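User: Look at the shape:
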Amino acid sequence: MKKLIIVCDEKHRKYGDYLSQLISLEDDTEDCVVGIKDGEVATQVWSEKEYQSNAPQISSSQYILFIGESKLIKEKGLHMKAVFSKYGMRYGWLGKQAILTVEESISVKEYDEFLNFALDNQADIERLVEKKENKSFVDKVKENPMVGAKVAGIAALGVLGGAVGLSPIIGLKIKRTIDLKKGIREQQYSCAIIKFYLEGLSAFLGM
């Protein structure tokens, strides 16, 4: 089993927790591995303070993902080639260290295009969940909010606030009920997390 330490700045801890929860899900099907193989990765979510306190003891072979926009995380990313960079979202890695960040908020004019991109990424997950359990998306959300959070992707873990939290389509389109600048940036982070989980994590960990 591989161990992944997820280091987050103070403002973005919830996204580290979100990724950790996605990794812990038993979501593989008989003929498809979703993200990474179930049970193959153990995670810990640290604050930057915890990372700095433990840094001298961390092995050079330890996998570490940094999430956020702090000075430390920006410095870590200086020499990392972007593996994914779109709609202000970026993740990449060099060796055993990776970063995931949102470099800039998308404009309101770009929002609909971003929304279509995000929902396209959700569609594959929804189909996999339904195929495995033979249940509808709504049923899955009611039975297990964390599965709903994964399928919802961008609207996961209540990042849009209130009752909108687990409604991936309706929630995302109620633009007037949220602070646009903050809300869109949160959506970018959630989208980047699920994109990294599905397409980047296994490559980063060499699995």
Observations:
- The first helix runs from residue 13 to 24.
- The chain has two domains: 2-104, 108-188.
- The beta strands are 2-8, 41-47, 63-67, 81-86, 89-94, 97-102.
- The longest strand covers residues 2-8.
